[in-house]
């Protein structure tokens, strides 16, 4: 897998989130990021990861999504192979941060504000929720690599 961070996004709760030049990652997620509902956060769901390829796929379905953070993701990645990711997989984001995939992100009805066909249109391409294993700083352009677990 040859992937990289395209954007790091924070929000006040709900969608959209907005790109930032960098963000500090702690056990509970990105510093400055908020969640509107309790089920959207927590240690197991600290970071939402989505691939740029999902954006391209949704644009083919005439969804207007040009700006990172449109779908509430914290990390927009390029080259992430969603088909090969599974809960329990670990990824190193940049030199410091390690996350562990917890579960597939369940698209919610909040996404209807982007397109009335959501959340159904996003099924199978909604991204991942992850817990933070190692903290640090994230910035666009940083590499993403799979970490072998013992």
Automatic annotation (TrEMBL):
Gene3D superfamilies per record: PK beta-barrel domain-like
Domain MOSC residues, every copy: 15-147
Gene Ontology molecular-function annotations: catalytic activity; molybdenum ion binding; pyridoxal phosphate binding
InterPro entries (alphabetical): Benzoxazolinone_Detox_Enz, MoCF_Sase_C, Pyrv_Knase-like_insert_dom_sf
Domain of life: Bacteria
Listed name of the protein: 6-N-hydroxylaminopurine resistance protein
